[in-house]
């Protein structure tokens, strides 16, 4: 019987205490092994080729070469290695982590704080870090195999062995866009949102699984990169066209219908129970959008672990709305979009770079080919 090879982990952190904690966490799992450790980014780059790790746990703040500079060097030379940033929950740590995630880091883990002892810190890291390592280690490289015996990957065509639960056509132009995303989200949003023009006619509501400090910084960063206005959602905000609202970390985001037909719907934030182990949860937003906007809801499910968004996508299809999903080949983790696709809820399954054009096409009801031509002409004019 062939023994499966273990996932090799390189630990990079200037703190000997943190390196010891991470080594203990990795060593606790028989499917993982510590390939090596380094105290700074420059040292890590010197040993990557010989160690050949599958995943690197990379500290954000280090001497000699910090985490962001190290990540960029890794992406230039070893693009296939998955990187998880290890961040402190500070303003600076969060800001650098957001930049790292947008620059290609797959995910992040918060350094343990407030634990009474070493064992408590290890338990916290085991709970948070190990599922992320395993999710990233499962991601395919190169050819994508068939899933569930009936879905073709990396295309917008899905072959099913049973009839679809909902009709395949996309209905009339939507009145709101709701996006759910998790692992790999900042980089994905950095592709989708800047592709939409400043005169985009719809509001966009986004749930990205992140803590509270991180979501504010994510909104601030996106606001400097997008033609549209991007802000963190606030209680009671009127939902305006041409604005992107990022759900606040640790708060569910819902939509409240206007009391008067002349007043736009408003945002409602609350700290109800976790859903799918998350707050904010994609399902909460999607259900609320379905209830308020009905067939005018356009949902987009991007890269992420787990299945958050599955139930909400069902609800949106149930009221006649539209669901788009990112394909497997361009997802960091094809958990969330994969669940939606396998359930048959997605009308379109698209590579990341085509999500923005499809949102634009749906919002204007232009033919797909015309939008592609316009996008291509714009790119040529810029270059």
Question: What would you say this structure looks like, in words?
Answer:
- The protein is an alpha/beta fold and 383 residues long.
- It has two domains: 7-137, Rossmann fold (3-Layer(aba) Sandwich), CATH 3.40.50.2300; 176-382, 3-Layer(aba) Sandwich (Rossmann fold).
- Helices cover 38% and strands 18% of the residues.
- It has twelve helices and 14 strands.
- The strands form three sheets. A seven-stranded parallel sheet has the order 8-9-7-6-12-13-14, with helices on both faces.
- The radius of gyration is 21 Å and the shape is elongated.
- The relative contact order is 0.11.
Give the strand order, joined by hyphens, for the main sheet.
8-9-7-6-12-13-14
Q: Mean pLDDT, rounded to whole units? A: 87
Number of DSSP E strands: 14
Q: How many domains would you count in the coordinates? A: 2
CATH superfamily of the largest domain: Methylesterase CheB, C-terminal domain
Uncertain residue segments? 140-162, 367-383
Fraction of residues in helix:
25-40%
Alpha-beta classification: alpha/beta
Tell me the major beta sheet. Answer: 7 strands, parallel
Rg computed from alpha carbons, rounded to a whole number of angstroms: 21 Å
Could you give the order of the helices and strands? EHEHEHEHEHEHEHEEEEHEHEHEHH
How many alpha or pi helices? 12
How far apart are the termini? 55 Å
The shape, in one word, is elongated
* CATH-derived architecture of the largest domain: 3-Layer(aba) Sandwich
């Amino acid at each position: 019987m062939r023994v499966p090879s273990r996932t090799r982990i390189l630990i990079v952190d200037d703190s000997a205490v943190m390196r010891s904690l991470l080594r203990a966490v990795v060593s606790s799992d028989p499917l993982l092994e510590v390939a090596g450790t380094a105290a700074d980014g420059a040292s890590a780059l010197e040993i990557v080729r010989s160690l050949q790790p599958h995943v690197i746990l990379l500290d954000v703040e280090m001497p000699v070469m910090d985490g962001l500079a190290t990540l960029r060097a890794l992406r230039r030379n070893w693009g296939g290695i998955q990187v998880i940033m290890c961040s402190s929950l500070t303003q600076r740590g969060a800001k650098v982590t957001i930049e790292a995630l947008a620059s290609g880091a797959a995910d992040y883990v918060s350094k343990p704080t407030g634990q009474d002892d070493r064992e408590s810190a290890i338990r916290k890291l085991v709970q948070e870090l190990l599922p992320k390592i395993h999710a990233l280690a499962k991601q395919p490289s190169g050819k994508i195999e068939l899933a569930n015996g009936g879905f073709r990957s990396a295309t917008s065509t899905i072959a099913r062995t049973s009839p679809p639960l909902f009709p395949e056509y996309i209905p009339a132009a939507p009145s709101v866009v709701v996006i759910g995303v998790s692992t790999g989200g900042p980089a994905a949003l950095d592709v989708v949102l800047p592709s939409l023009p400043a005169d985009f006619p719809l509001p966009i509501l986004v749930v990205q699984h992140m803590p509270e400090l991180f979501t504010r910084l994510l909104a601030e960063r996106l606001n400097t990169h997008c033609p549209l206005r991007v802000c963190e959602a606030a209680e009671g905000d009127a939902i305006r066209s041409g604005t992107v609202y990022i759900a606040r970390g640790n708060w569910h985001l819902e939509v409240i219908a206007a009391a008067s037909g002349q007043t736009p719907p408003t945002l409602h934030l609350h700290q109800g129970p976790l859903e799918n182990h998350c707050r904010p949860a994609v399902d909460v937003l999607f259900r609320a959008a379905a209830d308020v906007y009905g067939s005018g809801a356009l949902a987009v499910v991007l890269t992420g672990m787990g299945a958050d968004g599955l139930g909400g996508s069902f609800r949106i299809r149930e009221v006649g709305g539209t669901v788009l999903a990112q394909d497997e080949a361009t997802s960091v983790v094809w958990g969330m979009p994969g669940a939606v696709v396998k359930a048959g809820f997605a009308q379109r399954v698209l590579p990341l770079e085509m999500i923005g054009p499809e949102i634009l096409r749906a919002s204007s009801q232009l033919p797909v080919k015309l939008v592609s031509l316009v996008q291509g002409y714009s790119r040529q004019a810029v270059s």
